[in-house]
């Protein structure tokens, strides 16, 4: 069963293994592959957007298709690329960082993935079934309610299904971190990446239900004749905006906090220093999360909430700059006095600081409610959130993947190609987005299918498009890097970066049960503690004994598949009639039936016997 | 370290069988967090309802909440659900004392009370639709009302199915460390539904009656 | 409403930053070249935040540069183990307190300006209420703008005429989806919501000119083409425009025979069902009373007959998803030309976009006279 024997098995067996796996390391790879696929898709959409905006008054792409493109670009990148890629890192690393053999709910973990995947696939089916959603990733009502065709239905139902998955993933991570830490791994010894996973999961738990409700209301309005957002029938379209942003703003922190976690690990490792101000970093993370729930309405300054509400939300938003600033300075001081190695992962981390500082600066500018009347919904905002989400989250994902690649795949990515990717991506990114701040202030609103000639917007848009191409080239080099190292790369040492945290104490490849004996944690950066004060190996906290493992299951796949089928039925209820009802019936039967099986069939897992573990140990 | 036989055995149960295993503890904790999420879900629905209460726009049928709601029926429903919460507490009490039969009896009563509640709720909806033309699509108020109360009703229905499934599945093998957390979590869910109803009773019906 | 920050304004303008910024964009569109009260205030706030933030960025970048230059791993020192520092309370306090102070400096004017910009109670400088303030009801539609001059019985679409000597108060709503009213060089934006969520704001142009407005809230396929103009004219010119617009006779037959024929066609083809002439409350489509003075066709196309004919024959080609397409019997090209001729002849006022751009400032008539005129106008309506 261990990864070493995977190569010997047939292709079908490998596929079946991944369809039924409940191993967090394999689920991480599933998240990575699916998230990577959607990232490429979202990138392709972005390139088409930039091509359309390369020249004024361009007729390259039609207005409707353009709207579908930017709607899907945003939706895909946030829900189907950034979050799953972070989930890949969380799944792969967090249990290892706390010294756990698995997550708290392996079955739910798999279910979370398959729900996300089927939700994402459902959303993208829209391209082939009459057009993608076209109301923006924010899907403001009533535009989203009156949008013809089924595009927005795909949006609502696809996100609903994948949202369930995310929610389950979040609960799973929270419980894992609370109950499954190794002996001695107190809360204040947890690596920052684990901390940020923990906090982001709490955010998911409390933010996603608001989206769930919003999407239900939208679905009811569109498919079942409800009147939530229909002003003529007493509805109020602003409710959607509130529900969306009560979810949507914490979502930003759900994305960025894990990226902060990644950088904290990378800075510390490649400066050979412990994280400066660890406790204030933890405090800042929690504070950002807390404030993150108080500021949703800063996305709605121009809605007409009145000066009192606007002022309150403006000040609350500015307050977030303080903990974020604490983090920036702590990272700088982590490097101060260190011995910095500029690996590819470190390059991402180092370049993140000025990039994210710029994003934070524009964030504070946007928080100034009165001034936001000019910035709002202009390219200034587009520039701001790309600085935060690309400069923060995407840099974090790329840096984190480079850093943990040896742990996930047993091989190292090519550093030379990695640096090429970095420099092209970094240059392209700033070229694309820096100028957009000015485009916005010069009067270019966002989501504009075309800008007209003679408004002074030509040069800026051209530069922006050129930058986007550089990012695309960088992505291709990254892909080539992944393929070439997978095919030709050599096995990497178990601890290639001179790591500090628990995950680097594991052999390469990581055994499927992770820790043969749970390690005893003696301080922050446990492995570093053992390297400097011990013999460089973790001390076991328990004698060698049987290990309890969960069984694989195909049910997560079928539960998700059933919802996928039923969603089509709900959507085409009116147009298709009977066949649609059959789809609803069959789909729900599959889902509920699978849940019933899960409920009544005992799933007790199995044990790896002590003797087998001893044998395996001898073989090493 | 426990083996399969231990987990499925009804002998020698500890005092709190629902939290005796790591799986049980995880389930217990995870479910509490799930209920946290559910709280946000219902809070959002309550917010929406309050924003759209008695909001009719140009709708054809516009019976305001004061005329619409009859408190007698809703009061009976409230009593039924509150009592069912109490009976589920008895069930859990017997579970902790390892008295499987009594637990099943009390769970059975809980299910009956829940079913009665659901039946009355369906009657209530039927009444609104046929006497006042107050439907899901008649106005924003209607949409908000049926969505909030309906979400709760759907939770009740799901809870009933869940408890019934657990009862049938485990009827013949008794209590053990494997199913104790399942029963316990189901009862937590039932309490949560009850708490939500208390809010619905207050916010929707009582406040709807006064103004 | 120029608070204490006004005094720092000169300093800001001198800073090279502002010089660079003011080179950005076109004067009739750019938020960086404010020509109105709101935009001016916001520009001050923007500059304040830019300066504070530039300071923060500078501090970060100085530490950053030192760090990555000085503390790189040196050749031959791969085994060097740096001191493992836990933290430093003094430093951590410093970088918590200083940002808080900086943010407070920004927060105070932010609140002040947020309230100032939300002040839609017409008052004179002494705090006396203004009775005859100019109120305009702005309605967003997919994909055009309607302007209803409250109490003046004037309706226009696409081009909004305002005087430069005072604040103009606008009430914003929408007939379909959410739009957002944005004239960057005059003021910040405000959403137009359908239903009950109406908004109010004021706009006040300091200079005469034709300023470009955009829809800033995504509203459908032609969101990017929902442009409009604000024609800011001197108060005297505005009064003249108002008088002319009030005197419009919707039934007037143009002298030009082609245009007269166009008028009949305009009626026959049921254009009037949507496009009102004169102060009719019907506003299914843009009001065309002063079509002859428009600065653009449909807000985006160059103002000439060729484009107007092309628009009439195929609006979909110019504004995808517009609500005019398919709602009327398609006229022949000749008929369309006649209709165009008619529409372009609708020039009820001598005041047009040119007057906003010619730089000539005409003072309003003395107060008594305007009041007398106002009374007459009232009497007229009473007689009707």
Record the SSE blueprint.
The complex is a heterotrimer of chains A (620), B (211) and C (384).
Chain A: H1 11-20, H2 24-52, H3 63-97, H4 106-125, H5 143-146, H6 151-179, H7 192-224, H8 238-271, H9 278-292, H10 307-335, H11 344-367, H12 369-375, H13 379-409, H14 415-441, H15 458-488, E1 519-520, H16 526-533, E2 539-540, E3 547-549, H17 555-571, H18 573-576, H19 578-600, E4 606-608, H20 610-619
Antiparallel strand pairs in A: 1-2, 3-4
Chain B: H1 4-8, H2 22-52, H3 65-68, H4 71-96, H5 100-132, H6 140-170, H7 180-210
Chain C: H1 9-14, H2 16-22, H3 37-70, H4 89-117, E1 135-141, E2 144-149, E3 154-157, E4 159-163, E5 168-174, E6 179-183, E7 187-192, E8 199-203, E9 209-215, E10 228-233, H5 235-246, H6 257-268, E11 296-297, E12 301-302, H7 305-313, H8 315-318, H9 333-345, H10 353-357, H11 367-383
Parallel strand pairs in C: 1-5, 4-10
Antiparallel strand pairs in C: 1-2, 2-3, 5-8, 6-7, 6-9, 9-10, 11-12
Helix pairs in contact in C: 3-4, 6-9, 7-9
Main location (chain B): membrane
Pfam family, one (chain B): COX3
Transmembrane segments (chain B): 29-52, 72-93, 105-123, 143-168, 188-208
Summarize the structure in words.
The complex is a heterotrimer of chains A (620), B (211) and C (384). Helices cover 68% and strands 2% of the residues of chain A. With 620 residues, chain A is an all-alpha fold. In chain A, the strands form two sheets. In chain A, strands 1-2 form a two-stranded antiparallel sheet. A two-stranded antiparallel sheet of chain A has the order 3-4. The N terminus of chain A is likely disordered. In chain B, helix 4 packs antiparallel against helix 5, helix 4 packs antiparallel against helix 7 and helix 5 packs antiparallel against helix 6. Chain B has 211 residues and is mainly α. Chain B is built from seven helices and no strands. Chain B is elongated, with a radius of gyration of 20 Å. Helices cover 76% and strands 0% of the residues of chain B. In chain C, a hairpin with a 3-residue loop joins strand 11 and strand 12. In chain C, strands 3-2-1-5-8 form a five-stranded mixed beta sheet. A five-stranded mixed beta sheet of chain C has the order 4-10-9-6-7. In chain C, strands 11-12 form a two-stranded antiparallel ribbon. The chains are: A mainly alpha (620), B mainly alpha (211), C alpha+beta (384). The interface between A and C is large, with 90 and 93 residues.
